[in-house]
Amino acid sequence: MSTLSVHDHGVAHHEDDHGHHHHKETFISKYIFSMDHKMIAKQFLITGITMAVIAMILSILFRIQLAYPDKAFPLMETLLGRFAPQGRLDSNFYLALVTIHGTIMVFFVLTAGLSGTFSNLLIPLQVGARDMASPFMNMLSYWFFFLASVIMLSSFFIQKGPASGGWTIYPPLSAMPKAMPGSGMGMTLWLISMVFFIASSLMGGINYVSTVLNMRTKGMDLWKMPLTIWAFFLTAILGILSFPVLVAGVVLLIFDRSFGTSFYLSEIVLNGTQVQPFEGGSPILFQHLFWFLGHPEVYIVIMPAMGISSEIMSVNSRKPIFGYHAMVYSLIGITVLSFIVWGHHMFVTGMNPFLGGVFMITTLIIAVPSAVKTFNWLATLWRGNIRFTAGMLFAIGMVSFFISGGITGIFLGNAALDINLHDTYFVVAHFHLVMGSAAIFGMLAGVYHWFPKMFGRMMNERLGYLHFWLTFIGAYLVFFPMHFMGLDGVPRRYYAFTEFESMKQWLSVNMFVTWAAIMAAVAQTAFLFNFFYSIFFGKKATQNPWEANTLEWTAPVEHIHGNWPGDIPAVYRWPYDYSKPGADEDFILQTVPLSQTMNSNLPHDFEDNPTGLEEHNKWVNTQKSNEQVK
Amino acid sequence: MGFKNLFNSKKILSLLAVFMLAGTDMLFAQGTEAAGAAATDAPKDNGLATAGYYILMFLVVCFFIGIIGKVFRVYDLTQQIRGKQPMNWNNVMGTLFLIFLIAGLYGVYWSFTTHGSMILPSAASEHGGVLDTMFWTTTGITMPVFIITQILLFTFLFKYRYNAKRRGHFLPHNNTIEKVWTIAPAIVLTVLVIFGFFTWQSIMNSVDAKGQPASINIDITGHQFAWELRYTGKDGKLGKTNYKLVNGTNKLGLDFTDKASFDDLQADTMVIPVNKSVRLNIHSQDVIHSVYIPHFRVQLNAVPGMPTYFKFKPILTTTQMRAKLDKPDFEYEVLCNKICGGSHYNMKKIVRVVSEAEYQAWLAQQKPYLTDKLKQKLHFADAPADSTKVQGNRLALNN
After folding, report:
1. A481 and A583 share a domain?
2. B175: which of A400, B235, B244, B284 lies 20 to 30 Å off by Cα?
3. Pick from B249, B222, B197, B155: which is nearest to A362 by CA?
4. Which positions fall inside the Cytochrome oxidase subunit II copper A binding domain (chain B) (predicted)?
5. Is position A543 within any domain?
6. Within 10 Å of residue B65's Cβ, how many Cβ atoms?
7. Residue B72, exposed/middle/buried by CB under 10 A (0-12, 13-18, 19+)?
8. How far is CA B396 from the centre of its chain?
9. Are A13 and A50 found together in one domain?
10. What is the pLDDT of residue A39?
11. Which residues on B lie below 8 Å from A522 (Cβ)?
12. In this predicted model, what pLDDT tens digit does every residue of B75-103 receive, in sequence order?
């Protein structure tokens, strides 16, 4: 039996440091410049939510413009001043809204808000570590992010308004201040903000990777890690490898803007008369550099959501996740492939058509691991015993959106079809479903599920239900009709659809979409109220409210520095032993040794442990012979 | 819209809103006065009253939702006191998912028929037909997957909703079925990739082959915020251009040291003959634009410093398309499909597909780029050919 238990020596020495001395915590060291991963996670979350609300309000502003292009709203002028003269949005400011909405949602909410929150919270708690590998760097990571957020938002308060070349900031539009108002000071602030953001993201990423690789507790080998950790780990690797490329792109852009170089600029005449001195550069170069990050970025956004949903769906279906290994390998597959598909954003840039063909092949290959993940989620639900917690609802919503949005990816990944669909509303519908709605639903699922872990209290389930249904239905109503607009050749980033006769038929659809968006946006108050109210007045949480197996639920409800009093628990099994036949309860914590659950052990539990399997078989045989004796 | 109608009818509530807002309005009024807006005579609607009204409406709705929440809570508690089961939310949610599935499927059907009938008509170009076939094939393959997976998702949710008497089925993996659903999508995608790859190559790798009659060459140049067109003259060649020569009179920067440029024509409308291959040479002067002609399934970016081209063959004239769509004022349009600045949404060029004879007649009426004004400026008209060209070039470069 010795092979089944793990001895606890070695962990004990470490404990002395933590158990006995309580270093004095001031308000500043506890809540502001905190180095505790749990507090940093909360900081990321609340900043992320704030940014999400801001970006959502921006989207409502431009949705109103699209629904009522000819109508004046006096309130707009009151709120926005010169950006909305006579109560109508300025067309340049419309583009600024679109740009900042995209930038904030992609980077500040779904990258920092999602990875930042849940990697910080869950990596140490789920792998069994006292804190991150470098708590100080972790703190810096948050404060760089905060600084980046402040700089990004400050661009609303400058004369010519924020950056407005789209979140992809393609030069030459973004490189020449004369090309549009937003390419002046606003663009400079955007670039500075992004440099801080990337620094933050890198510091976070390095921490996540090193913590996962070096600080797992005893018994926690890689194949015993929950899928959340796998997802965060691979996401961090993606970020570390791809974000620096964006820095390179951004720095060259700064050079072009401020120091007269021509990396991205060539043969430019402004206003039909002003011949610019740039020669020899290529705007396409920037697009390559941008999308080398940009495409992995969409997986940086979706993979944590996948991991979170997998975990929550397994817990609430009371069933192991189906095909754990396949889930991990498909994550790895997505990670690797995501580096060689960036060209599908550039099919119609005039890039060499052969290159387009190659990128089409790699892009459609990446659909395979995505399909595998979807089928595995469905199989996880099959014959489960599904509890509809608010977190579970959002995880399900994530799967539904991922299917709906993923399917259209097969159209857009096809270079030939992309000729007619590129940059139309079909694309808008596609990515808002597959990485926008799906990722934000993954994030919300995580918030509902781990709220008890973060704040020691429960969120109100019924308000969560209301929030889910309004948001779920709202998101479909907003994005589903957009596919058809795209198929009618309606381009994105248009200030108004009044100038082209052919687009006027979509005005009523636009009004419908806007009202659906307003409904979904208003529904978020149910979440915001629930979230902030529950922090202070929610029902007190028990230690393991969802009856989950993973390590974080063995830590006490009250947060302590170092996460566990006494030894860090050792791990003996994979995290998905739910509803195991023969077990007393329908869940078995990862910390329960196999020797204590002889009745429910299966050969499956000893796949990489031949001695254990031998013992197991011996035990089974003895049981059988005992039966026969009886 | 629904919200609005609901609230508009409640006059009493609006009265209440105004009442409540009096206080805030005064506050804001003070603010604007302090800012020194004394000059304005008529009080301008600042929209705050409307906003306050809607916020009040919203609070009322919240209040009702709160009451409903309390009702549920009281119901639950009384059930518990009576020793009965409290409300089973798992059943409620499971049922809601089933309802969502049915309503959603109907919604998808409705959207496909209603919105689906508003999408582009079948392609008016040769390669567009191939793309349409591919699009419908892809739709035919993926839509069943979409419908089936969503049905499975939501029916599983209903069927396997929580029941305290039951346990989940412990099924960690099944290698056979996992292999099946890895290989099946791989095969389908391989088919789509092969189909797509060759179609893509045939559309994009369409350089004029040797011996083939050259297609009609048209230059289209994007700048903020319009398209400029250039047709070949009698020589059938487009002259060279140089961006350094661009100025008020020579807006495309034609290089008049190249004789081929003398007879290049300018045009306001892109008129092209039907059933003839057209090669669009796409240029940009300032930022990236994108030539997008949805009805022809044509799109390619206009990149400054990197000319691109797209070859296509229109197969339906404007008149035919008008008859087909039953829209007497229909026009094909070029639009800009890459964000390019404030008026990006209004970069239009009409395309008219006509018969060969109409095309030739139209072409004969177009004016060359080398206008009298330009000739004068470059001293073309009076001086002997050789010396002017040199001088003209120098002049142009100096500009």
Report:
1. no
2. A400
3. B197
4. 213-365
5. no
6. 14
7. middle
8. 39
9. yes
10. 94
11. 58
12. 888 988 888 888 888 999 999 999 999 99
